[in-house]
Write a structure and sequence with these properties.
Layout: H1 2-13, H2 19-32, H3 49-53, H4 56-74, H5 83-95, H6 102-118, H7 124-142
Bound molecules: protoporphyrin IX containing FE (HEM).
C-alpha cells in the first residue's frame, strides 16, 4: 500500500551509499544519549564522538545497521521472515549492554536522519510509515531480551 511505497521511494532516494546517512543517524544518537558510545568496546580507541564515528569499527557498525534497515525495506511484504534474524540481533545487543528503552532514541535518530536527507519529501505520512516499520523491527529485536 501507500506506506510501503513511501518507505521504498524514500529509502531509494537516499542513494546507493547509505553509510553517510547512517553517520548522521548515529551522530544524532550519541548527541541524544552519549552513554551509548561506551557500549562499543572499541570506543576507548577514539577521542571525541566525531573521531569515533569516523573510525573503521564505528563505520562498520553503521554499515551493518544500514544493511539491516535495507533488509527490512526489501522485506516489507514479509517482515516476519526476518524475525529469527532480528531476535538473534536483539540477543547480541542485550549481550553488549543495550537497553530496549534505547530503541526509542534510535528511532528518533532515524527520523532525524530522514528529515535531514529528504527535506521537503519528509512528510507526516512518511514519518508514520517509517515509524510503523521501525516498531515492527524493534518488537522483533526486543524478543531477544525475553528470558
Ligand atoms: C553489533 C551496539 C543499534 C545492528 C553491535 C555491537 C555493538 C552494538 C557494541 C558489537 C560490536 C560491533 O559489531 O560493532 C549498538 C548500540 C546501538 C545499536 C549501542 C543503539 C542503541 C543497532 C541497530 C541495528 C544494529 C538499530 C540494526 C537495526 C547491528 C548488527 C551488528 C551489531 C547487524 C552485528 C551483529 C553480529 O555480529 O552478528 N551493535 N547497536 N545495531 N549491531 Fe548494533
Amino acid at each position: 500500500g501507500k506506506d510501503k511505497e513511501l518507505i521504498r521511494g524514500s529509502w531509494e532516494s537516499l542513494g546507493n551509499n547509505k553509510v553517510p546517512h547512517g553517520v548522521v543517524m548515529f551522530s544524532r544518537l550519541f548527541e541524544l544519549d552519549p552513554a551509548l558510545l561506551s557500549l562499543f568496546h572499541y570506543s576507548t580507541n577514539c577521542g571525541s564522538t566525531q573521531d569515533c564515528l569516523s573510525s573503521p569499527e564505528f563505520l562498520d557498525h553503521v554499515t551493518k545497521v544500514m544493511l539491516v534497515i535495507d533488509a527490512a525495506v526489501s522485506h516489507l511484504d514479509d517482515l516476519h521472515s526476518l524475525e529469527d534474524f532480528l531476535l538473534n540481533l536483539g540477543r547480541k545487543h542485550q549481550a553488549v549492554g543495550v537497553n530496549t528503552q534505547s530503541f526509542a532514541v534510535v528511532g528518533e535518530s532515524l527520523l532525524y536522519m530522514l528529515q535531514c536527507s529528504l527535506g521537503q519529501a519528509y512528510t507526516a505520512p512518511l514519518r508514520q510509515a517509517w515509524l510503523n516499520m521501525y516498531s515492527i523491527v524493534v518488537a522483533a529485536m526486543s524478543r531477544g531480551w525475553a528470558k
